Amino acid sequence: MSTNDLNKNINEESRKLEENPGDYLKTLEKGIEVIKAFTGHPNLTISGASKITGFSRPFTRRVLLTLEKLGYANSNEGRYSLSPKMLSLGYSYIASQNIWEIASPYLEEFSEKIQESSSLATLDNTEIVYVARVSVNKIMKDSLGVGTRLPAHASSVGRVLLAHLSEKKLDRYFQKAELHPYTEKTVTSEVKLREELKEIYEKGWALNSDQLEMGMISMAAPVTDKRGEVVAAVNCATHSGRCNVDKAIEEYLPLLIKTSKSISKKIDFEII
Length: 272
Known about the structure:
272 residues, alpha+beta, six-stranded antiparallel sheet, three-stranded antiparallel sheet, elongated, disordered N terminus
């Protein structure tokens, strides 16, 4: 379904709700408002959320307890915060827009030029999830495809996405992440990883070598929505037996950045 078709359906459903108000779920609307209350507020008490939304304390409490039970919120000494599982809703939104149709032509063109696999991925909790992929060469022990998850700290895509998180979201990531050493060179120090993320943010792209698998070289660049917010990242991967780091930077990087910018221009939806 195209974006135009999706908007038409939304408008039609809105018209039906106006004609049949009994179909409107007021409770769902109010629950969403409680979630939105956390914008700019990483932690809220029941009283704080109630004050922001204007809802009663008992209702606000029920919403927060429900979110906690479902794993979308955490609580600590009476203060609530949204959990990284909220990112799964953003992933569902990306998937609902059929991002494969948006990204695949650009990934295919990119992979054809460099003769290496390329992917588009987003961040979900402490992992990255492939939402589009063009496979050319099998470079890892297990084949990769749409839906494949990889650890964010050991992947170039993950590092690009982590580098663009706010400080508070990054802190929450490190609270949950297990920085497992996949090779002898995998960065497992939070201090060192934070330093590298700052460098990635400043450069605008990431390069990984021997982090997830010995001999694997991968590069990634961010994809933004129409607000300029980073919502995903494009990457390509190769092996040291076919390509060295210098060649990857000189030949692959310009095409990678061009691909990420092309996809960004085509994404006409936002992730909130």
